[in-house]
Amino acid sequence: MLEEKIKSVIRDVPDFPKPGILFKDITPILHDHKLCSEIVDAFAEKLSESKPDAIVGIESRGFLFGFALANKLQIPFILVRKAGKLPYKKIAFEYSLEYGTAKVEMHEDEIKKGWNVLIHDDLLATGGTAEAAAKLIQMQGGNVSGFAFLVELEFLKGTEKLQQYSKNSISLVRY
Amino acid sequence: MLEEKIKSVIRDVPDFPKPGILFKDITPILHDHKLCSEIVDAFAEKLSESKPDAIVGIESRGFLFGFALANKLQIPFILVRKAGKLPYKKIAFEYSLEYGTAKVEMHEDEIKKGWNVLIHDDLLATGGTAEAAAKLIQMQGGNVSGFAFLVELEFLKGTEKLQQYSKNSISLVRY
Question: pLDDT tens digits, residue range A27-63?
Fold first, then answer.
């Protein structure tokens, strides 16, 4: 089963980025091209009945499978980046973190009105960044058609926060 | 011709990230899945006679075509990230910028001794970051088999700096 296979490759790193957090390191997956292609295929299959018009990938690990999936589905790929990284005219959304705030940006001409846009990141934790990506899509007149994560940390209840944007949320691996 | 096609899609953004710099924005390419797949195919074709054992991609735009190319060639993909981002045991290399320094890191168990490793980034400017990636590969006993860039700014003479690591440097687009 794909979930078990992915779990057997993900590496637990204790106390990163700070004491008490058990970090799920996905980088060993990237050494296994067969597993990578199974992951892309699994996302594509789950989207086969409602193919989005574009995929938004969140910097920077969301660029990996997000771009691969967009190419597989033959649709545009759009970057959501941390503040100050995108060069052209852009829109921004600021959101709260445990301590302080974070800001993400998207180029302003990326999404056509009415497009159904899928949001991808490698990991869903509390959902703050994915929610910010949803806001950026809506600010441009797009619809959030769903979310696709490689890993979801269920105990952080990120999908609860995201369901007001779309009830379609795919996670290949859950902890 | 592929170079002309890519050039027609790249967007010039004046005065980014600072006054006087004409930034080459590759994000419009990501909207064109056909062009994206032609780019991956062009890299793969140029590497067909000396397929590397792995590809190192430089954060974060180097994750896009780097990962796509690694999957196409069916070889491992390895991340070089800015300091503090990788969770596991890692090695670091610090290098000089115009003002100050920058540090990049790689997990310490990523490269097997004797592996021929290709370095990819979207854009070659002065070559400082690509050189740092080369150092990280050599620190782990790997060989730098070559470099692959989507865009090269020839007037900054990055390839001169890199040729001590490998004389094989591919750039699909040159300015």
Answer: 999 999 999 999 999 999 999 999 999 999 999 999 9
Beta bridge partners of B93: B104
To the nearest whole Å, the CA of A83 is away from the closest chain B CA by 12
How far is CA B12 from each of CA B6, B9, B28, B171, rounded to the nearest angstrom?
A: 12, 10, 11, 18
Give the pLDDT band of residue A123 (cuts 50, 70, 90): very high
Architecture of domain A51-174: 3-Layer(aba) Sandwich (3.40)
Hey, which bits of chain B come out as E strands?
Answer: 11-14, 22-25, 54-58, 77-82, 90-96, 101-107, 116-124, 143-152, 169-174
Cα separation, B131 vs A49, in Å, equals 45
The reply to whether A61 belongs to the active site is: yes
Q: Is residue B49 annotated as part of the catalytic site, yes or no?
A: no
Q: Which of A61, A105, A110, A154 is catalytic?
A: A61
pLDDT greater than 80 at residue A98: no
Spell out the domain ranges in chain A: 51-174
Nearest to A31 among B37, B68, B76 (CB): B76
Residue with tokens 């800015």: B82
Of chain B residues 108-167, which have a CB less than 8 A from chain A? 110
CB contact A70 to B (< 8 Å) = yes
Shortest Cα distance, chain A CAs vs residue B73, angstroms: 9
The CA distance from A16 to A38, in Å, is 28
What ipTM, to 2 d.p.? 0.97
In tens, the pLDDT along B78-134 reads 999 999 999 999 999 999 987 889 999 999 999 999 999 999 999 999 999 999 999
User: What is the arrangement of strands in the sheet containing B101-107, beginning at the earlier edge strand?
Assistant: B90-96, B101-107, B77-82, B54-58, B116-124, B143-152, B169-174
Chain-chain contact of A13 with B59 (C-beta, under 8 angstroms): no
3-state SS string for B29-66: HHHCHHHHHHHHHHHHHHCCCCCCCEEEEECCCHHHHH
